[in-house]
Amino acid sequence: MHIWATILGAAVIFAILRDAFETVVLPRRVDRHFRLTAWFYRNSWRPWTRVATRIKKASRRENFLGYFGPLSLILLLGLWAVALIFGFACVQYGMGQHLQLSGERITFGKLLYHSGETFFTLGYGDITPSNATARALAVVESGLGFGFLALVLGYLPVVYSSFTSRELEISLLDARAGSPPSAAEFLGRLGCCPDQTVLDEIFRDWERWCADLLSTHISYPVLVYFRSQHSNQSWLAALTAMLDVTSLIITGVDGIHADQAKLTFAMARHAMVDLAQVVDAKYRPHDADRLSVEELQRLRKELAHRGVTLNDNADRAEKLTKLRSLYEPYAHALGRRLAMNVPPWMRTEQRKDNWQSGPWDRAIQARALERPGGTEDHF
User: Fold this and answer.
1) Distance CA 124, CA 102 (A)
2) Would you call 310 helix, strand, or coil by DSSP?
3) CA 186 to CA 191: how far, in whole Å?
4) What is the C-alpha separation between 269 and 273, in angstroms, rounded?
5) Residue 375 has pLDDT above 60, yes or no
6) DSSP assignment letter at 96
7) How far is it, in rounded angstroms, from Cα 292 to Cα 267?
8) Closest CA to 257 of 321, 189, 199, 316
9) Does residue 194 have a cis peptide bond before it, meaning omega lies within 30 degrees of 0?
10) Which of 142, 149, 191, 230 has the maximum number of C-beta atoms within 10 A of its C-beta?
11) Confidence at 33, pLDDT banded by 50, 70, 90
12) Where are the domains of the chain?
């Protein structure tokens, strides 16, 4: 009976150390039939989203979903710690001999307590190992406890640093493409810019952002569950909007060269596809069409009204359809999997950008209008 406890404990320790190494230390995606971290997120995210669907108010629902990323990170680290304590307790039960100060009989429950105080290096001394194997196991476990603490101290800053870097460009997109972002707003605000280098520089920044997104979110998959600071923004919305914009420019916009847009589209599409695989998003062949023929005509008229002319040849429309087919199914799948909204191609209603809204705006505007000659003005 005790030998099976030893085998079970060794297997648990090996599985946890391998999973933690592949999740935290190894900077690449690893495909295996079973992985504890993937199992944990699959079986915790689904019930979390089911609870979220019962919350009627959109802002509260988004806030609730926003708790999952940071909380799941803490719970995962706690799961690893508990599993390691259990594994070492099993090995101690099978191979070690222990003495207790009060002379009571050593049970598995007491060994579990001893394993916990050893792992966290409390060192009460009320239970002591009495043979060489048990002493060696205690030393190894206490060293592993120190290593686990170092892992936590090193892992959390890297994750939050990557999150902060991701959110920087998303925040910058607010004034350039609206909240939520859309291709029509981006081109309407910047597409008529007479200097091509301005757009190219923006697209270069977004090419780097997509490369960074791909690198960090594959290395630290928990980041895909971290929500943006505003409920009408997300990394998925920003990525999709940039794919929409670059696909329109590649299709043909008068006065705009597509060289840099092609590079940005390629990097953004790469990130979209790989991240859909990271979260095991499922493809559906009958997702709603984001840009019907009628909506495309409305988009052309809207942009033309704002000084941007899209090429309206039939072959160009077909090319746009092919480009959309390269990324829209993945965007829909990610949106379903992560409970995130895929942004529209153009706004359905007029909304203020996030930078234009604030808790005192109505009172301030009312006072301004009460003054002689007072008017409401936004640049």
Assistant:
1) 13
2) strand
3) 7
4) 6
5) no
6) -
7) 26
8) 199
9) no
10) 191
11) low
12) 2-153, 165-356
Measuring CA to CA, which residue among 278, 232, 294, 228 is closest to residue 69? 228
**194 — pLDDT class (breaks 50, 70, 90):** low
Residue reference for tokens 């800053």? 157
Q: Cβ distance 184 to 301 under 8 Å?
A: no
CATH of domain 2-153: 1.10.287.70
Question: pLDDT band for position 225 (50/70/90)?
Answer: very high
Of the given ranges (14-18, 59-63, 121-125, 359-363), which has the lowest mean pLDDT? Answer: 359-363
For residues 198, 201, 203, 204, the Cα torsion angle rounded to the nearest 10 degrees is: 170
Distance CA 346, CA 294 (A): 13
Determine the Cα–Cα distance for residues 340 and 62; give it in Å rounded to an integer: 9
| 135's tokens | 């002493």
Q: Is 103 left (phi over 0), alpha (psi -120 to 50) or beta?
A: left
Rounded Cα–Cα distance for residues 31 and 6 (Å): 28
As a whole number of angstroms, the longest Cα–Cα distance in the chain is 91
How far apart CA 129 and CA 136 sit, in angstroms, is 9
Cα angle: 184, vertex 190, 193; to 5 degrees:
135
Global pTM? 0.86
Q: How many residues does the chain have?
A: 379
Task: Tell the residue number behind the tokens 């194997």, with chain if given.
Answer: 133
What's the one-letter identity of residue 279?
V
Top mean-pLDDT range of 99-103, 127-131, 332-336, 363-367: 332-336
DSSP-assigned states of every residue in 146-180 = HHHHHHHHHHHHHHHHHHHHHHHHHHHHHHHHTTT
Written as six digits, the tokens of 193 are 């810019």
Average pLDDT, integer, range 271-280: 92
- The alpha carbon of residue 130 and the mean position of all alpha carbons in its chain are separated, in whole angstroms, by 48
Q: What does the pLDDT average to over 177-197?
A: 84
Strands 98-100 and 127-129 come out as antiparallel
Q: What is the pLDDT of residues 92-109, one digit of tens each?
A: 888 877 777 677 788 888
99 phi, psi to nearest 5 deg: -120, 145
Note the Cα 214 to chain centre separation in Å.
10
Return mean pLDDT, the chain: 87
